Amino acid sequence: MCPLTVGLPTYEDELLMKQLKNEAVVLTHLEALAKFSLKKARYRNHLYVRCRPVIPSPVQTAYRSVDEFSIQKGVDGDPRTVGFFIGSPTSKETDVVCVPPDSVDIIKSEHKLVASAFQDFLRRHSALEPLLFSSAGSNGGHWRTITVRSNRKGETLAMVSMHPQSLTTEDLSVHKRQLANHLGPIVTSLYMSVSPSANVVVPELICGQSSLEEVIQGRRFLLGPTSALPLNVACFDGMLDVIRSECVRGTKRDILIDLFCGIGVTSVLLAPLVGQVYGLNTANDFELAERNADMNGVQNVEFTCMKGSGRRDIGLTEVSELLDTLSTSTGNEITVLMRLSSGGGVDHRLLEELRISRKVSKLVVLATNPEGNGVSRNLYDLCRLQKKGFMAKKGLFRQQFNLKHAYCVDSCPGTGSCDHVFVLTRPV
Description:
Elements: H1 11-37, E1 50-51, E2 66-72, E3 81-86, E4 97-99, H2 109-124, E5 133-134, E6 137-138, E7 143-150, E8 156-162, H3 169-183, E9 189-194, E10 203-208, E11 212-216, E12 219-223, H4 236-247, E13 255-259, H5 265-270, E14 276-281, H6 283-295, E15 301-305, H7 316-327, E16 334-340, H8 348-356, E17 360-368, H9 373-383, E18 402-409, E19 419-425
Parallel strand pairs: 1-18, 8-9, 13-14, 13-16, 14-15, 16-17
Antiparallel strand pairs: 2-3, 2-7, 3-4, 5-6, 7-8, 9-10, 11-12, 17-19, 18-19
Helix pairs in contact: 7-8
């Protein structure tokens, strides 16, 4: 996430830029539907999308609750520099350097301290080389990244990622002790993930507490080394107000499905306002979500661990089974709160399950950088008219959704990014 450095003298100018961005995203969506068939009468509802004013962040500096710092050659030529890339490590056209985060004002001082201490460890105490990548491939090193999380009390949880290469178990134990001795005094929790693949995270606690605790709207939440906490906790109140206004209908018979719910923050906070919440999350956060619900005395939340053979298969079986069960029960219509990744969105088969279910009347979609192809395609698949052979078996209900409201929450001040909330409805 690249900080804005020029061209926006005031925060008001930045908010205006993001308002225009939100409107541009909606316009792009409408244009995609128009290419399919704007002449069809059932698309007229899409022309009345209301883009709400941007919700500002109460803080504009030192707000990020998690940062991942990479290792690469710095401006001084030292390959053991910890910070952020300028350029792409795999590009053949540009050189990449790593810049320490000292001058980036959106990063907390606690995170900068841990990154600096880790760099000092690499340069002065570790005999292992960092795992550097370039257009020619990797150098066969070990140290990958360090991810730092923190709460509003200033407590920090750090996780160091490394490639084992040919190190033995005994060798790894020595390096873990060295790392714990160096970083242990300045962090609350220290984890290490040792894996040949950067996409496989195997966190092992080597020093300190197993988790941190954060308080959001009077509720306590535990977070671990892979927990997806709101990036800007101070701005989350504004985001939650939007979600609450769209997901809560005002009756205890309401049903909310919280898809990709993480450690259960929204599930726990919205549970007292609805009849039942079904939270679906991955194995990394499943245990913490259940503990968070129990710790806050919430009884009407049921969490399900989503499985799948690949990233895009995650949740297909669990969502299908849950919707089948709810289709036969008595109760109100279902609202689905869903998070979309800008990288690839979700599989179209999961969207098919939502369209097929007669009880799903509203989708509240959370997305960061929705101009990405994955999110755009997902919104398009949810809103376009059904055609023969598309997304469902013959004879099944598959009414399209209509985009009604588009909100923008400035969870990332000082950057070009922001969080978007799209509200999609349909008659059922």
